[in-house]
Amino acid sequence: MTSFSNSSQVKILIVEDDQFMQAILQKFLSTTYEIIIKPTGMDALSFMQSGNLPDLIISDLNTPKLSGLDLIEQVKLSDFFNSIPIIILSGEDSSEKRVKCLDAGADDYIVKPFNPAELQSRIRVVLRRSGKFLANL
What is the largest CA-CA distance in the chain? Predict the structure, then answer.
């Protein structure tokens, strides 16, 4: 899939370069949400600049070409994208990294490996806070 559909389903842009993690996220989230996966932060930015606006971005912290932290900063600097909530997924359980991402504008920070049910709950919380929560979730 190269762009989001026009459905009313919540649209999540996943930025993840690891194919195993892509498959896990696709499996657990695609039953509830419309998912598009991009392997780098640059790919994600280009995708959004082409008019594909997600309701939520889930990004790995360490992606090639543009890190998750850099992606947060780019999204929050943009008048078009700055209201899109961002959840960071990372294998780094560093308080310093968490604080840096949250201060830069991330809405949540989840450490891998994660419980898929917890990720679903955190997605619902972030969507509810952003006003994008849909009753059917």
Answer: 39
**Could you tell me what percent of the chain has a pLDDT over 90?**
85
pLDDT at 137: 47
| CATH architecture of the domain formed by 11-127 | 3-Layer(aba) Sandwich (3.40)
Domain boundaries, the chain: 11-127
Residue type, 50: S
Output 17-24 pairs: Cβ under 8 A, ≥24 positions apart: 17/60, 17/63, 17/64, 18/60, 21/60, 21/89, 21/112, 24/116
Mean pLDDT value across residues 14-34: 95
How many angstroms separate the CA atoms of 82 and 19, rounded?
28
pLDDT digits 0-9 by tens, 55-65: 999 999 999 89
Pairing relationship of beta strands 11-15 and 34-38 according to DSSP bridges: parallel
**CB-CB neighbours of 94 under 10 Å:** 12
Euclidean distance between CA atoms 132 and 113, whole angstroms: 26
Q: Among residues 28, 32, 33, 26, which one has the least CA distance to residue 11?
A: 33
pTM: 0.93
